[in-house]
Each structure stands twice: as C-alpha cells, then as structure tokens.
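I would like you to help me understand the sequence and structure tokens below and explain how sequence relates to structure.
___
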Amino acid sequence: MTDIQPWLLLALIGAGFLAGWVDAVGGGGGLIQLPALLLAFPQAAPVQLLATNKLASACGTSVSAVTYYRRVRPDLRTALPLAATAFLGSAFGATLASQIPKSWFNPIILVALILVGGYTLAVPDLGKVTALRFGGGKHLAAALVVGAAIGCYDGLLGPGTGSFLLFALVGLMGYDFLQASAKAKIANLATNLGALAVFIPRDAVSWGVGLAMGGANLVGGWTGARVAVARGRGFIRGVFVVVVTGFIIRIGGQLLGWW
C-alpha cells in the first residue's frame, strides 16, 4: 500500500474528508472510507485495509468527540463506561479480523443497515427527546453491553460503527439524537483506539496513506460536528437516514451486480 499514484492519493484524501464529515453528523463514515481503500488497493490484505481505515478514522473521531463534548456536555457517567467496553470489544474484534474474508464484508453490513434504517423510518419520533428506557444499574448495564457488542463489530469489520452506536443509544437506550451523537463519538474514538492497539504491533497499518486520509478526516470531523451541534436533532436524523439509505442502495446494488 506504499506505492500509490498522486491522483489516487488525492481521491483518498477527498474520501477521508467526506467520511469525517458524515461520521461526525450521522455516523457511517467508514462506509465511505473503507470502500475507497478497497477500490484503491484491491490486492491488499483485509487486515491492512481495516488497520489503515482505523488510523484515519481515529483522527476524525478525536476532534469530533472533543467538539461534541465541549458543546453538548454529555453525561460521562454513561459515556465513559460505554467507551471502556467499546475499547475492549474492539481490541477483541481486531484480533479476529485477519480471519474474515473480504466477501463477508458487504452482506453483513447490508443486513445491519436495513434493520437500522427500517426501524428509524418506522418510528418518526425516534430520538426527538431524551426518554431513557432504563434507570440505575440497568442503564449502566445496557451501556456496557452496547459498547462491547458494537466495539467488537468495529474491530472485526468497522463500516457503519458510528451509525450503529447512534442507533443503539437512541433506539435502545432512549437518548435524543444530539445527546446520542456526543456519546457515540466518545465511544467511537475508543473503538478506533482499541483496534489500533492490536493492529499497530502487528505492523498492519499503512502509515503514509492512513495519516494523509486522517488529516482530511480530522478536518471533516471538526466541520461536521460543529454543523451538527448548531443544526440539532432534526438535521442529525435527516443525515443519518440519507447516509443509511444511500449505502443500502450502493452495497445492495453491488451485491446484485447492478454496477
């Protein structure tokens, strides 16, 4: 992954910026970034693509997590335990990543996206206000389970993690979209770091490509987070639905041989 044409690197940088913006607003930036890496490096091992994607994503989620925290002030009593199990789950998933063939990526992601998108559209008031489903220990337990499960998915595959975190915090735990976004970004940063803690010692990261995309992802994450906080719940939900729908069409069409 070190020998790359300048025009292709510029295209990957553009994908990194767009992924950072989308991920900061509605999640799902990896659904832009990882396919771009797959197209650019069709012969690369899956673990290399996943590791490089994680490096780039970590740059964007770090700045968007800070931006959301400063402007929304999410409750860290939920966010930190969520992030802790997300880190551990992601590290565990990353240890299994080399066992996953590329052919599994799209079908798994497509099924998950259809379920998430369908439920969001079926419940228009989802995420309109915070109405927590659980209290006390049950709320904490739900956060721990969400972090571990989605963290494991992120280390194993990755694309759509931000969207799945956002959906779980809204649909399962009862947060509004803005509060859920703030917590999701903290947890998503933890999943990226957890996977990198496994990938880096294995020398799986392509540092040049990852840092170039990461710089663009960081700028995209910063601008996206500021727009999302300023525009609020309705804007975040709208972008979330558009992102999920767009990628259902793209991935589904690819599997059906439409393009």
Q: What stands out?
A: Residues 6-256 form one domain. The chain has one domain: 6-256.
